[in-house]
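Final report, closing paragraph on structural work. Over the funding period we assembled a curated collection of sequence-structure pairs, and we close with a single example.
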Amino acid sequence: MAAPIPKIKAVFFDFMGTCLDWHTGAVGVLPESIPASERSKLALEWRQDYFDSNAARLAANKPPESIDLTLRDTLDALLEKLPEHKHLFDETTRERCVVAWHSMPAWPDVPPAVEALKAAGYEVFVFANGTTRLQLDLCKSSGLKFDMLFSSELLGIYKPAPESYRKTLELVNVKPEETVMVAAHTADVGGAKKAGMRTVYIHRWTDDINEDMEAIKTKYDYFLEDMSTLVEVIDRF
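Its predicted structure, as stored:
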């Protein structure tokens, strides 16, 4: 007789991008003299450079650094490649751009999804790269409420390192098969799948901009365009 499938107890969310519309917040503080389409492109490139910087640190076995520092360094480097815009970014403007990442709105489908999961009895957690201060600030700006926030700063390692998943599940005292990872990043859900967690990929146009979405659709347990049916999907596990 086959062993029963464990009931899901905990749902872990990536935060920025998955739950939060970072693009609106980031574009909103860029100099208005830059055309809207170019501001959007700049923000998307900046975000990708941030991911690449984290990946490089992880590959070099370096500990996580403050997201504010990473964002500032990647912005400075990006502007060096954009001489037509660089002069618009004085010190005050650059600092304002970095600070803006501490205040981002939630995607409209997220608050009802998180509340539905809690009402259904699931524990809900943030499990994301960044600092604890960043996550606290983002909870305030978005109005989202979770049972606990797990940052790479707190864990001492970036996702998607295997140790980050092991450590997080150990702290919550749940087995991988009792958990679901919800993220808009194939690296995050890929790491979760390797760790034995169930996986839900959320497609956000702002994230994984260089990935093949058709290929991603068949890689994980579920591929969703938003979180409107998330609680029903997790109930099926």
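The beta strands are 10-13, 123-128, 148-151, 179-183, 198-202, 222-224. The two ends are 19 Å apart (CA to CA). We thank the funder for supporting this effort.
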